[in-house]
Amino acid sequence: MKQNFKRVQSPEKTGSFIFHSEGVYKLNSKIALSGRLQADKTAEDNVPYILNDERTTHSSFIYNPSYYWVPRTAKWQKQSYFINGQVAYNPVKPVILQMGAEGLYAKSYRQNADPRPKVDDYKYKAFAKLGLNWRQHSLFGKLSYVNHYKMNNILFVNIEAHVPANDSIYIRYNEGYGNQYIGNTQYKTSEYKMGGYILVESMHSILPAPISLQDMIIKM
Predict the structure, then answer these.
(1) Measured between alpha carbons, how far is 138 from 172 in angstroms, rounded to an integer?
(2) What is the rounded distance in angstroms from the CA atom of residue 62 to the CA atom of residue 58?
(3) What is the tens place of the pLDDT at every residue in 161-190?
């Protein structure tokens, strides 16, 4: 039986705008401040087979092969904002202390077609470095804290269209490359095994407000 082991989750066309600024300010002979700011905005046209922010634009695969998907292409918007600030302190000649923090917020969302996923990506980092120079030797120590998490919410403007008859927009779940259902899953002996359909037992609709996929009871 032939299986589709490769799908291309890449936009047909991409346009980007980037703003970048950085600088260093020396308060005195012992203290210096530095910082960096960057904002990115990207528009992607006709992205198929993916409902998260991963793409195969520069690689032949995505890093997480378990994902929700629909065949229909759609337009995506991506925005990210990054800020970094650091202070360096040199109390005596052989010792230097550096402390800093940075934050990244990115969001990606599908604009013009159901289903409409929205991905919020947060990353925060704080760090401190201590360095010691002695003759021809250098010793450095670093301590850092990183917090990184994502939230993904899938909405429908018209939840009634989310039925298997609408093959191009009905949400499927892919578990591994080639849509192979393995392990303890109810799909492995069902007629939906190769298609990866998500069966919806019940759904609640208050139209015309968009409805989250999280509000539906989904058999997984």
Answers:
(1) 55
(2) 10
(3) 888 788 888 888 776 655 444 444 444 444
